[in-house]
Amino acid sequence: MLLALKNWLSANEPEPADPLYEFKLSGDNKYLELAIDKYNHDLYHFLLTQSDSELAKDICQKTWLTVVEKRQAYHTSQAPKAFLFKLARNALIDELRKQNRLAYIEHPEQQLSVPAEHTVKSHQSLYDAILLLPLQQREAISLQLEGFSLQQIASITDAPQETIKTRLRYARTALKHVLGEDDE
Questions:
Q1: Do residues 85 and 140 make contact, with C-beta atoms less than 8 angstroms apart?
Q2: Is 132 exposed, middle or buried (0-12, 13-18, 19+ CB in 10 A)?
Q3: Nearest one of 94, 70, 81, 91 to 152, comparing CA atoms
Q4: pLDDT digit of tens for each residue in the chain (184 aa)?
Q5: CB-CB contact of 154 with 122 (8 Å)
Q6: What is the 3-state secondary structure (H, E, C) of the chain?
Q7: Contact assessment for residue 62 and residue 120, using Cβ atoms and an 8 Å cutoff
């Protein structure tokens, strides 16, 4: 009976707008669970566009461990989702450096060259085309597709807004080339 009453009371509590902030203040795992439920799918999807599925799972897990270990580092000045994506991005870059798989393009004006067989249309065509982009362009377009503003993308990637605009422009141009002009 007591357990049923406890479950009923906890079910009637309103969900906090910012579970990471509540976790920072209280350290209560229920807020961490709420944050994981709310943001984990988007975080994993972003990481999947930047790496393979195993690495995306590992980095996702490392990101949540970092949240637990450094919960006091969270600031409410940025959106919780942006904070998580920045942690994940930094963890991914560290891991790619360890594996010697990090290859940033020095000249963002370089265009993507795509073989003709990649112009095949399917439900996966946009996702496949994004995976063909250089890392910095792929990162910028993936973050924009996740709903982040230019300012948030700049904050997550530690790059100026004008640089982000350039990366997005080159990414869109390359995607139009791969998918054809009709698929905007």
A1: no
A2: middle
A3: 81
A4: 555 555 655 555 677 888 989 998 888 899 999 999 999 999 999 999 888 899 999 999 999 999 999 888 888 877 899 999 999 999 998 998 888 765 543 344 444 444 444 443 454 778 888 888 998 999 999 999 999 999 999 999 999 999 999 999 999 999 888 888 654 4
A5: no
A6: CHHHHHHHHHHCCCCCCCHHHHHHHHCCHHHHHHHHHHHHHHHHHHHHHHCCHHHHHHHHHHHHHHHHHCHHHCCCCCCHHHHHHHHHHHHHHHHHHHCCCCCCCCCCCCCCCCCHHHHCCCCCHHHHHHHHCCHHHHHHHHHHHCCCCHHHHHHHHCCCHHHHHHHHHHHHHHHHHHHCHHHC
A7: no
Name residue, tokens 């988007």: 42
